Amino acid sequence: MFTGYFARLKNYQKANLTPISIAAKAPIWYKGDEYKKLAPKWSFYSEWKSGSHKGDNDYYTKHFKEEVLDKLDPEQVLRELEGFSGVSEDNIILLCYEKTGTFCHRHLVADWFNQNIKRDNYVFNVRELDLDSEAQLPNLGIFY
Fold it and tell me: Among the four residues 8, 80, 107, 113, which has the most C-beta atoms within 10 Å?
């Protein structure tokens, strides 16, 4: 499974990945699947974005963990993502707004999956997909 951002949607689709928005509100032009259970809550998001905790990533992380992730079962979430998208975890990319390298809840989601999903025969790994990085391209069978 991968994470990425809406501005790169066409590139992800060219890579045969199935996008799933985990944003509270996807862009109006986005027509793909959405999984709101992994979206931030407005109460702490608005405080982090422009309120008394503006830019406080520790505040955001604490509230996202307590109010969103701690209420979910990662194995169940993975089954639901695969179930409604119709593809395996290897072909899913979770989308939000922030560019690669910028603080975003999708990175918290990736860490949560990586820490909580255990497999006997392989390492479960959710990672940011940067299609500008040639090191990742052979794994996807894509050549630009």
Answer: 113
Per the domain annotation, does 35 fall within a domain?
A: yes
Q: Measured between alpha carbons, how far is 52 from 137 in angstroms, rounded to an integer? A: 42
Q: How many folded domains does the chain comprise?
A: 1
Residue 51 falls within a domain, yes or no? no
Tally of residues, the chain: 144
Tell me which long-range contacts 59-68 makes (C-beta under 8 A, separation of at least 24).
60/103, 60/105, 61/108, 64/40, 64/105, 64/108, 65/108, 65/112, 67/41, 67/43, 68/37, 68/38, 68/39, 68/40, 68/41, 68/105
Give pTM, 2 decimals: 0.86
pLDDT greater than 60 at residue 117: yes
Per-residue pLDDT tens over the stretch 29-87: 999 999 999 999 999 999 998 988 998 999 999 999 999 999 999 999 999 999 999 99
- Domain span at 118: 2-42+74-140
> Distance between CA atoms of 76 and 17, rounded to whole angstroms?
21
Closest by Cα among 126, 125, 128, 127 to 99: 128
Cα–Cα dist 20/23, whole Å = 9
